[in-house]
Amino acid sequence: MLDLDQLHDFIVAAKAATYVGDGTQAEPCRPKSHDLVFTQGDFSYRDSYFGGSDFIGEEVVYHKGESMWGMNYYGVILQPEKIDAAEAGKMIKASLSRLYAEGRFLGGWQHQRADLTYYDTSTGDLTHFTGREWIEKSGEKVYELVYHGGLIH
Question: Per the structure, how many domains does the chain have?
């Protein structure tokens, strides 16, 4: 039987160690994808995405080689004249590192730094969820990402 607390803790550790933690790029699993991987015990994680300032991706967790959890996402810079991908990425990493330090990865989060404010909101739980993150600069939305996922049977 799957231990959801153990799965949750692994997902938080994997997310913190890969994109947010500047993890090592892995061999692409699809042509032109950027892939990050993390392994701990019987669990492994792969985040595979395409693009740069506007991007789409998928995260999958495997337990003993079997896929068991996944998340899809799409992010876009809405106002490239006000924020670039590098500035948005720094804000996202700073905000998510604080969220992961609390031992969680789903919504209800806000973080401010200078004139940028990061927001994350979601519904559901580890088993089935949808959410959205965005950045506002001086009160205007300049970046947005939508995500959804859950258990895979």
Answer: 1
